[in-house]
Amino acid sequence: MCTYNQADWEELSQASEKAGADAMELNLSCPHGMKEKGLGLACGQ
């Protein structure tokens, strides 16, 4: 999991690409037990 920080996502995507990944799937639904904090919504926005 990444924080709500663009640099973290860039680092993850670049590392995945370097490792040979063709695609990256993002699940932006609310993490289990975190819906009351709106974390999934924050990532999707």
TrEMBL record:
<dbReference type="GO" id="GO:0002058">
    <property type="term" value="F:uracil binding"/>
</dbReference>
<keyword id="KW-0560">Oxidoreductase</keyword>
<dbReference type="GO" id="GO:0005829">
    <property type="term" value="C:cytosol"/>
</dbReference>
<protein>
    <recommendedName>
        <fullName>Dihydropyrimidine dehydrogenase (NADP(+))</fullName>
    </recommendedName>
</protein>
<dbReference type="GO" id="GO:0006210">
    <property type="term" value="P:thymine catabolic process"/>
</dbReference>
<dbReference type="GO" id="GO:0006212">
    <property type="term" value="P:uracil catabolic process"/>
</dbReference>
<dbReference type="InterPro" id="IPR013785">
    <property type="entry name" value="Aldolase_TIM"/>
</dbReference>
<dbReference type="GO" id="GO:0050661">
    <property type="term" value="F:NADP binding"/>
</dbReference>
<dbReference type="GO" id="GO:0017113">
    <property type="term" value="F:dihydropyrimidine dehydrogenase (NADP+) activity"/>
</dbReference>
